[in-house]
Predict the structure.
Amino acid sequence: MIDTKKAYLEKMQGKLQEWKADIDKLKAKATQAKADVKIELSKEIDAAESQHRELERQRQELDRADESTWEQVNGGVQNAWDKLDGTFKSITDRFK
């Protein structure tokens, strides 16, 4: 369990860092966009940042979880992960 938990948390941390870099790239892209696109993209970025912060909070909670609470906490983390992943796919599809 400990090795699996550690590997999962490391994978999650890597993906969170990747998503943070993607958010930074989107911010740079937004500064170059036309006004109407900039407003819409900024809203999407704000949503992604909020979801990213929530996932990071849940990752920390998962890190502190013991064996008896791991599955319960992990379910919430997986939902947050899927939501953020969907947000990035949506942003990428709309603002290529």
Helices lie at 2-32, 35-64, 67-94. The chain has one domain: 2-94.
